[in-house]
Design a protein that fits this description.
Methane Monooxygenase Hydroxylase, Chain G, domain 1, four-stranded antiparallel sheet
């Protein structure tokens, strides 16, 4: 028994092995529990802070709309009101869905819309509109004007929607005309407009049509009556009798009535037109002829034949030269 006790007490290996084994297992499980706990702690914040992929999708690129205008015809051009009727086809094509409601006519009002092609990415409409314009009358009645179709997005800025010209669908119909006018040239371009108070540019498509009066009809309508009055008045200088005074007075009155009739059809402007300058020279010519006739009548009644001859001599040589020179100068200025 003592020996057994001595063996048990003096032999540490069997009991030590059991203790170390239990301690090792306990450390292993403790380490395993700690690792799992760490992994759980590391995984919870990751799940909580996971980004919302839908909210962080990249913003789509700018929408580009190809726009074309095929002008079919123009209606009456009213200079007093500053507007003209237009009938044209409008085409829209884009990589994103597009509709006519996204755009507006900046210089007029659309009065009729007829859809021709209606797909999400391609539209075609036939439009009837009243276009407004600012007439330039400096050369009137040889005036030229630019009729424009200006289109912009209603709400989207240039950063959201950009307009580009579609040359394949932009043209002028060969049968398009405007009575009394000649359509000289066309042009189109895209630009942008920034409005006061916003500072945001908006894309704009512009389609221009330059018109001018027909030269033949202008001469016949405006200048033929006045030229006849001038010719008759200057021809009266060949008359040496006081009776030419009545003839020139009637010519002066006719010129005033013609000028009033022509000016009644044009809007009031703050500058002198070509017709105004032409009429000033016409009035000056008629006044000079009238004054020469008055002087001839005065000296004829007083019996001063020499003075009458002198006035008639210089009137015949000076008045036509001054008049024709002034007419030539304003026509040269018109050409230049």
């Amino acid at each position: 028994m003592d020996k057994g006790i001595a063996v048990f007490l003096g032999s540490p290996h069997p009991a030590g092995s059991v203790v170390r084994s239990n301690r090792t297992q306990r450390h292993f499980y403790q380490g395993l529990v700690i690792c799992v706990f760490v992994l759980i702690l590391a995984g919870v914040p990751a799940a909580a802070t996971s980004p919302d992929t839908t909210a962080q999708l990249p913003v789509s690129a700018n929408s580009t709309v190809a726009i074309g205008v095929y002008m079919v015809d123009f209606n009456r051009f009213d200079m007093q009101a500053g507007n003209v009727g237009a009938d044209f086809y409008l085409t829209l094509s884009s990589d994103t869905p597009v509709t006519l409601d996204d755009f507006e006519l900046m210089n007029g009002a659309i009065t009729s819309v007829t859809p021709i092609i209606d797909t999400p990415h391609a539209k075609e409409y036939r439009l009837v509109a009243v276009l407004t314009t600012e007439p330039d009358l400096e050369r009137y009645p040889f005036d030229r004007h630019t009729l424009s179709v200006k289109i912009e997005p209603k709400q989207k800025s240039e950063g959201e929607m950009a307009l580009v010209i579609d040359p394949a669908n932009t043209d002028l119909d060969p049968e398009a005309d405007l009575p009394g006018w000649t359509i000289n040239k066309t042009g189109s371009y895209s630009t942008n407009m920034t409005y006061a108070g916003e500072g945001i540019p908006y894309s704009r498509a512009v389609f221009n049509y330059t018109i001018s009066r027909d030269v033949t009809s202008t001469i016949l309508k405006f200048f033929l009556p006045l030229l006849l009055i001038i010719i008759v008045s200057l021809s009266s200088l060949l008359m040496k009798t006081p009776t030419r005074l009545g003839l020139n007075a009637s010519m002066f009155l006719a010129a005033v009535l013609i000028h009033w009739r022509i000016a009644d059809n044009t809007p009031l402007v703050t500058y002198a037109t070509f017709l105004d300058m032409f009429m000033i020279i016409t009035y000056a010519t008629l006044v000079m002829v009238l004054l020469s006739g008055i002087l001839i009548l005065k000296y004829t009644d007083s019996g001063d034949t020499a003075m009458t001859e002198r006035i008639n001599y210089w009137s015949l040589r000076v008045i036509p030269v001054i008049s024709l020179t002034m007419y030539a100068l304003i026509f040269l200025a018109l050409v230049w």
